[in-house]
């Protein structure tokens, strides 16, 4: 394989980012690492998250990478500067691209962001939004049931809509733009869109990150424009439900999955 | 304070066990430790869970304990024998008492058990049920949304009932007894009972554990029969929502909460 885009996450959620990258950049080879043995990162200390992130990056750099994507909100919040300092390849996280897109799309400067309790408590999106859209009013809300809903595959019908209504009902009238600040949430996009209504623009961090990757590669002249690339998928543990969950997140059955120690 | 009952859990769930113990044994002093900084244990290796469990036990043993309760299914599955071997006080876990009660109550030998994905995958309840009720047929099912539902306080109404229907609908006709094999589930007892119907007996592990503690103290002559005991509550981290969650799990506002390193 030629030089690849490396992507890591604490688990399966980052597969939505991988999917967006593969759709946007169909000629790029990719290598993904899901640290499923140590998931979740959200409840771990910043120091531990930074150490695990460096482990993951070093594992991926055994392949010839042109760029590394941190497809995990917690790892982006706690380890992006450390990774950028330690590595010679460009490193892109998931927080800033979503914040930039939201800042560009809002009309009234009232932006919402939803994520896990850990991501919202870290304040990473709130800071990125305030930097990208100075003077904007930011509403942040944690939605703890969305991750297990997505992992169960309960993404359409009454149940996810009822959960979304409970979390988002109060936000509906307050914002014109809502950032999906968790890699699991694209699976619930339909239910979230129904509850927020047509007046609210949803910003998918995965899509925004893929766009940022495409821009970066175009700027450095590193973008592949032809060929049928290879895609490798590594995980640190293979839970029983992994194949079906991975397929739901990736949109297709993964071609190659290997369990590794990092 | 006199000799107390020590209780530890990976987080807040064990407060349902503490509550059952305090209701059943109102004259006993208690000391609780919730390892909220390192929660959840379910995604950690058995070796790490055993090490953390020994840490927790040693912290509690700085108090004068008459008995230690492991109010965490994962810690019971991975560390109970190690704790019993290492400590001189009696140690009671949450798995065996629930299995014993279910074995005594089933009429047709068809017993269900529900818990987190980690507890069900560990097989601890299945083994305990097969030992307590030889020849019984055991149905085990993981219910990942129940913990976040309980922690959100969404315990009554349409939403928990719809989630319970989705998890338990298929189990309804198969069992006459169902073990609530997770310390969070007593909060959802109403929704679970409605979905399972009046023909199914629910076994609350917290109640069963409290009964086992009472029996053990009675047998050794260590039971307090009078006095107004003190109750101490320690946690390794105090998350923002801790006071309201703790109140929901404990049934009353905790008198004393202190953050400690263990």
Annotate the secondary structure layout.
Two copies of one chain form a homodimer.
Chain A: E1 4-9, H1 15-24, E2 30-34, H2 46-60, E3 65-70, H3 73-86, E4 91-93, H4 95-105, E5 110-115, H5 117-122, H6 124-132, E6 137-142, H7 146-152, H8 158-168, E7 177-180, H9 189-196, E8 201-204, H10 205-220, E9 231-235, H11 242-250, E10 257-259
Parallel strand pairs in A: 1-2, 1-3, 2-9, 3-4, 5-6, 5-7, 7-8, 9-10
Q: Tell me about the biggest sheet of chain A?
A: 6 strands, parallel
**Helix-and-strand structural type of chain A:** alpha/beta
Secondary-structure element order of chain A, as H and E? EHEHEHEHEHHEHHEHEHEHE
**CATH architecture tag of the largest domain in chain A:** 3-Layer(aba) Sandwich
What value does the average pLDDT of chain A take?
94
Q: Numbering strands along the chain, what is their spatial order in the largest sheet of chain A?
A: 4-3-1-2-9-10
If you consult CATH, what is the topology of the largest domain in chain A?
Rossmann fold
CATH hierarchy, class of the largest domain in chain A: Alpha Beta
The share of residues in extended strands of chain A comes to 15-25%
Shape of chain A: globular
Strand elements of chain A, count:
10
N- and C-termini, Cα separation of chain A: 21 Å
Tally of helical runs of chain A: 11
Low-confidence runs of chain A (pLDDT<50, min 5 residues)? Answer: none
Quaternary form:
homodimer
Q: Gyration radius of chain A, to the nearest Å? A: 17 Å
> Helical amount among residues of chain A, as a percent range?
40-55%
Greatest interface and its participating residue counts: A-B, 22 and 22 residues
Number of domains of chain A: 2
């Amino acid at each position: 394989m030629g030089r690849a885009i490396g992507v890591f996450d604490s688990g399966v959620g980052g597969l939505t980012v991988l999917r967006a990258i593969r759709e946007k950049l169909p000629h790029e080879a990719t290598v993904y690492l899901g640290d499923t043995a140590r998931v979740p990162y959200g409840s771990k200390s910043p120091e531990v998250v930074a150490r695990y992130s460096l482990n993951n990056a070093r594992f991926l750099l055994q392949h010839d990478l042109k760029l590394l994507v941190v497809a995990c909100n917690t790892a982006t919040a706690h380890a992006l500067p450390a990774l950028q300092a330690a590595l010679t390849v460009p490193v892109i996280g998931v927080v800033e691209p979503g914040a930039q897109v939201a800042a560009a799309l809002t009309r009234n400067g009232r932006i919402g962001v939803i994520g896990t309790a850990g991501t919202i408590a870290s304040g990473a999106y709130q800071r990125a939004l305030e930097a990208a859209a100075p003077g904007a009013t930011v509403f942040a809300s944690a939605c703890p049931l969305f991750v297990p809903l997505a992992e169960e595959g309960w993404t359409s019908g009454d149940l996810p809509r009822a959960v979304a209504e409970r979390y988002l009902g109060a936000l509906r009238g307050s914002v014109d733009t809502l950032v999906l600040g968790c890699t699991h949430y694209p699976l619930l996009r339909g239910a979230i869109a129904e509850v927020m209504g047509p007046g609210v623009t949803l910003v998918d961090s995965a899509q925004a990150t893929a766009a940022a990757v495409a821009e970066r590669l175009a700027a450095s002249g590193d973008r592949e424009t032809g060929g049928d690339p290879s895609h490798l998928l590594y995980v640190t543990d293979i839970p029983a439900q992994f194949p079906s969950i991975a397929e739901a997140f990736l949109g297709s059955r993964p071609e190659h999955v290997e369990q590794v120690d990092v």
